[in-house]
Design a protein that fits this description.
single chain; four-stranded antiparallel beta sheet; about 625 residues; Multidrug efflux transporter AcrB transmembrane fold; Alpha-Beta Plaits; elongated; alpha+beta
Length: about 625
Amino acid sequence: MNRYPLWKNLLVVAVILTAIIYAMPNLFGDDPAVQVSAGRLNSVDLQLVNEIESSLKQAEIPYKGVVLEENRLLIRFSEANEQLEARELIQQKLSSEDYIVALNLAPNTPAWLQSLGAEPMNLGLDLRGGVHFLMEVDMDAVLKQTLESYASDIRILLRDKTIRYTQVNVENGVLTFGFREAADLDAAIDAIDREYNELVVAIDENAERPTVTINLNDTIVRETQNLALQQNITTLRNRINELGVAEPTVQQQGQDRIVVQLPGVQDTAQAKKILGATATLEFRLVDFESDVQDAVNGRVPANSELYYHRDGRPYLLNKRVMLTGEHVINAASTIDGQSGSPAVSVTLDGKGARIFSNITRDNIGNPMAVVFIESKVETQIIDGEEVSVRRQIPEIISVATIRDQLGKKFQITGLDSTTEARDLALLLRAGALAAPIDIVEERTVGPSLGQENIDQGFASVMIGFALVLVFMIVWYRLFGAVANLALAANLVLIVALLSMLQATLTMPGIAGIVLTVGMAVDANVLIFERIREELRLGNSPRASIDAGYSKAFSTIADANITTLIAAIVLFGFGTGTIKGFAITLTLGILTSMFTAIVGTRMVINLVYGRKQRPKLSI
């Protein structure tokens, strides 16, 4: 009745020992480190390791060790100031175009634990320090880009069917085509309906001339916005990887916002510059048939747009974009062999290479422009209030005559500096954002504040743990001591699971652990009070123990299941820190059920199950 079979005792012991092993890496702490990773066209090898070690020794910067793994070099230091000095030295020595030098933290986990796959859990931004951005995607721009793409396709459709139109306009989320004759309008509606059944086509009754209005249906709007959001998340992750940030967080919040957390990053200006830059590259043919001066004076042809070269010269470019930066799979800053000026070597994907090859083949002898469009957010004072206004800054960075059919690889020239070439290459490698983003919230957490949060969180757990220990021993004596052992095992299990899952611990997560400490002992209080009640009814100690555990189980299960449901809801609908709280609370509920019921029962069985005792220490 009060004895577990041997296999169950061994199972409990095995679980606890495994938890201890996988929780141990968190005891060894981290070393300040400098991480050196190579760009796409370079590698980190032993020669580079020797050069860096030699430079550190010459500069008399002490270091603990150097580890080379997976094309990444990690240099450990004892102090943070040594880490900062080393980073500056390495950045000066290595070309920032070819290598990424970033601050990092290297765990001190012993090799034998690493061989078992034991790693410390990750620390969140509030515990480690870094920057937090809340970004909002400009969904109006997403819809405008989509409508402009449809406008280009519909122009081609109408020209192919010899349907004449007078004007095309995209404004306020509506695409309009104007016509001179009603017959052309009817023919256009018929052609568009057959070719694009996902569009909502109607006649504008209020227009002076025959006009068609084209809208996206609700399904296309939702799909387009969601696709843009996901593409922006992917692009931001790629850009962060280019920055070399360890353990970043990039996740969706709501329908149009993205949370970006960069642990360990303190240079917010550089992070904002790279993350928020909505740089788009476009290749367009130059309209050499129209008069540029007429366009400067305001008479721009319907199928062309006026752009300016960075040196101030005006150019008329075709509205139709030949190719965009989304087809770029690699880009590296380089030096042009002919002019000696900074350039970017670009490699296209298969689809982009085919498009570019066909267009350049058909336009040999014609000039082509490379347009760099950067979107910036400016703060303006309107009616006495600060308003963020997004402004696009397009400029032509290169105009060249197509001499040959171009293919998968080519160069972009006309850049002012190697820094500009490097930044452009980074943005092209990471990909263009599908839509502009605005940084609506920005927070910086210093490393010292992060350590202070760790100390306070640890202190809160220990104080709560100690108070519970004292109460349980005073109130329940030996049974209370057993409950305290279970409580300690519960904390070890939570830490072990967080480490095994490589979850990120935050301050709300610590709050979840503190709450779990109280909840874990609740189960034992219910069991012990039930045992006391059975003893008062005159039952034997063995019978009271068995009845206490069996009769209290349903109450404990009900209470924990309802809390578990709440935790799952928090995880499903919460974001960021709320999810961190939900994860630790969920793990705590599951582990507390194991330790409070199975663990304590095993120990009580070992103490009281072998022979009858006249009295229980409870």
